[in-house]
C-alpha cells in the first residue's frame, strides 16, 4: 500500500494546525494517526523482539511532540519536524539501552521508506533558498550543481560564455553560503 507523501503531509499538517489553534478533536486525531505511524516506524528499526519497548517509545515521542508543539514552524513541513523528534527519541533509546541496531541485508529496503519525506523536505528547502538569488544564477546553479550538466552545456543553453557561467555560479553559491551563515539554526 503506497502512501502519497504529499497527501499525508497535507493531512497531518492541517490537523496539527487546527490542533494548535485550539481544536481538541483535530489534535486528538493527529496524535492517533501519528501513533500508528510511529509504531510502524519504530518496529521497522527496532525489530519485533523489542516490540514492548516500541510502545514506550511511541508514548515518549508523542509526549515530546506535545511538549514542543509551540516550536513547530508552521511555514515548514510538519512531517519533517515530527520525524526529527522521532529520530532523536530512537537514538536516545539506542544510546540509553546501549543497543546497536543491526538489520539483515535482505530487509534493508524497509529502512528507506521515509527517505521520500526527507528528500521532499530537502527539495523544498533548496527551492526556497535558491529563490533568494537572481533567476539566471538560480538556473545555472540548478543546471550545473544539482542536475549535473557540464559548464559547456550550461553555457550553450544560456548563451553565456563558459567563464560567465562559472562566475555566475560562483557568485550565486557565495551569496547562498552567506545567507546560510546568517540564518539561525
Short description, anyone?
Helices cover 72% and strands 0% of the residues. It is mainly α and 185 residues long.
Features:
mainly alpha; 185 residues; elongated; 8 helices; single chain; 0% strand
Characterization of the model:
With 185 residues, the chain is mostly helical. Helices cover 72% and strands 0% of the residues. The chain contains 8 helices and no strands. It has helices spanning 5-20, 24-46, 51-67, 78-97, 115-130, 135-146, 151-158, 162-182. Helix 1 (5-20) crosses helix 2 (24-46) and helix 3 packs across helix 4. The longest helix is centred in the N-terminal third of the chain and has 23 residues, at 24-46. The chain is elongated, with a radius of gyration of 21 Å.
The largest sheet is:
none
Radius of gyration: 21 Å
Number of helices: 8
- The shape, in one word, is elongated
**How much helicity do the residues have?**
over 70%
Strand content: under 5%
The chain-level structural class is mainly alpha
Q: Segments where pLDDT lies below 50 for 5+ residues?
A: none
Cα distance, first to last residue?
A: 36 Å
Secondary-structure element string: HHHHHHHH
Average of per-residue pLDDT values: 82
* Overall strand count: 0
Describe how the helices and strands are arranged.
Elements (H helix, E strand, L loop, with lengths): L4 H16 L3 H23 L4 H17 L10 H20 L17 H16 L4 H12 L4 H8 L3 H21 L3
Helix pairs in contact: 1-2, 2-3, 3-4, 6-8, 7-8
